[in-house]
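Allow me, if you will, to draw on your knowledge of protein folds for a short while. I have a record of one protein: its chain in single-letter code and its fold written as C-alpha cells. Could you please explain, in whatever detail you think fit, how the C-alpha cells follow from the sequence? The record follows directly beneath this note:
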Amino acid sequence: METGLVIAFDSTQQALRAEMLLEFAEVEIDLFPTPKEITAGCALSIEFPRDSLDIVKEIIIRESVEIRGIYSKSAVGYDYIRL
C-alpha cells in the first residue's frame, strides 16, 4: 500500500475493533506499530488508502469507535485531520 492515512487509538481494544469493522467493510488496511511522532495510548495504528477516508469516517462515527485521531504523513511528521 502506498502511504495513506493513519488512525491512532488510545486502547488496543478499539484498534482491534476498528480493524474488524474496516476489514468487514472491505477497506484495505495495514495494522502496524504507532509511529513515534504520534502520541497515543495504544501501540497499534491502522493505515488505509486516502480514497477510503469517507467510508472510514462513516464507520468510525456510526460504530462509535474511539480514536485518538486520523493523521496524514507529511515531510515533518504527521498532520492531524479533523473528522
Summary: The mean pLDDT is 92. The first strand starts at residue 5 and ends at 8. The CA atoms of residues 7 and 70 lie 4 Å apart. Helices lie at 12-24, 53-62.
